[in-house]
Amino acid sequence: MSSAAMAQPVVTEPTLVAETEHVDGGDVGSPEDASILPFPHLPSSPDDAERRSGFRRTRTLLWVADGTIAAVGAAVAAVVNNHHYPLTVAMAALWLGYMTIQHTRDGRIADLTDLRRIASININFVLFAAVVAIFFGESEYPGRWAVGVTGSMALFAIGARWALTKQRVRRWFKLSLDERVVIVGDLESVSRTITEWAGIEELTIVGVFVSESDGRPRSVKGIEVLGTVGEVADRIPAGVDIVAVHDVDKLGGLQLAKLQWELEALGAQLSIITPVTNTVEARATVRRAGRRLIVDLAHGRPRGALAALKCTFDRCVAAVLLLLALPVIGACALLVKFTSSGPAFFKQVRVREHGATFTMYKLRTMTVNAEAQLAELLEQNEVGGGLFKIKLDPRITPIGAWLRRLSLDELPQLWNVIKGDMSLIGPRPALPLEVQAYDDWARRRLAVKPGLTGLWQVSGRSNLSYTESVRIDSDYVDNWRFGRDLAIVLRTVKAVLTREGAH
């Protein structure tokens, strides 16, 4: 929007167009069919009042729960060690005040039950309590005592919030945790966000604002268009919890400030949608530079000492696992050898990080002439991207099908991990032909070593389409965390036991 356009006063009685035909996800009307209608703030409906009441009930219930937790914690600690009765009561009162202040600041319903945020807040308070007890305590182990008392209160508080995330508990207390959202941006961005947010139960999209250049459609993907970007501050419906803005530059500094003031009066939250995708919030850090807010994104994969530590960990664990698995591998190799002609082990060239190739080892699960039969089966391929896979592949031997269901055919890849060709956890090792068909998005898979297991395996394995597989692998590469690897290991055990997607 030009500066001249921004300087013009906002039209309070806009032109609404009649609905005509469906274009680009929205019903677009012609300016010639326009009619002049007033567009004040939409009045609050009974549903809006009930939702606001549910928010207040949630906040009140959490305050009562925190007060009870603080009182019980102080009482128990005072009985156990009455020498610290004044300090115990003071710490419990401080904790309750601290939690109350946090609730007062919460502008979104989801903030009240954000377990990660509440855990972070309580960890800081426990550390603070330990320092206070060390300086003012009289017992031999004041720090341990303070951590025990405040830590117990923190755990109970997190437990209370976890209970409120359960649908049954919310119905019991008549609480509503969903949020009504208005999306602001150009037609393409708004359309994409509506699609991405369609499956999120906690968000209800009640309207959108689009750019002036988008031609004033009446709706976008079934969501009513409330106006244009420049009219957001004057047309926000009552009862909205979040106004999510795609391109703040199109609003301009004054319009954005006006929108913030308006939302503050309405009790709604202004949220900025960045164009960054495939990124977890743990990688993002918000800081201020001059008068601007900057979002810094940390590297998505391990580097330096952390990468060396991960490689060492992978090799050591793989060596231990291989020693334990040798009897199983030997027994499976004998079964393969005696039930079908050909070698027990199968070697195949795969691609590792940065496009380098290596020889991957597996127990043979197909007939010896499997490659020769491939041409006859290409029409039955159920995936794309240079990869061939069908559920009822006639080339798989009976023992091979059993090995695949239990993922035992992949045990020899532990040797690849020890050699450094693979990692315990990572993207699926790709074939050279498959890599030749990669676009820039899929090539991101090659930024790290392929894995013996990975996010793709615990998310459906062979049941995934090629596009889904690429998205999942890219998400793992961009958002690596050690804790996430541990979660994948646990989910791998479940996937192997349930045999989900194994064929």
Structural class: alpha/beta
Q: What is the typical, i.e. mean, pLDDT? A: 76
Radius of gyration over alpha carbons? 29 Å
Helical proportion, percent range: 40-55%
Total strands: the figure is 16
Number of helices: 17
| End-to-end gap | 55 Å
Provide the low-confidence segments as ranges.
1-44
- Specify the biggest β-sheet: 8 strands, mixed
Shape: globular
| Major beta sheet, strand line-up | 2-3-7-8-6-5-9-10
Strand content: 5-15%
Overview of the molecule:
This protein is α/β, with parallel strands linked by helices. It has 17 helices and 16 strands. The protein has an eight-stranded mixed β-sheet, with helices on both faces. Strands 1-4 form a two-stranded antiparallel sheet. Helix 2 (46-80) packs antiparallel against helix 3 (85-105). The longest helix has 36 residues, at 304-339. The protein is globular and about 75 Å long. The chain starts with a helix and ends in a 5-residue tail after the last helix. 30% of the residues are buried.
Summarize the SSE layout with pairings.
Blueprint: H1 3-7, E1 15-16, E2 21-23, E3 26-28, E4 35-36, H2 46-80, H3 85-105, H4 115-136, H5 142-164, H6 167-173, E5 179-185, H7 187-197, E6 203-210, E7 217-220, E8 223-228, H8 232-235, E9 242-245, H9 248-266, E10 269-272, E11 284-289, E12 292-297, H10 304-339, E13 345-351, E14 357-363, H11 370-377, H12 398-405, H13 413-419, E15 423-425, H14 432-436, H15 440-443, E16 451-453, H16 466-478, H17 482-498
Helix pairs in contact: 2-3, 2-5, 3-4, 3-5, 4-5, 10-13
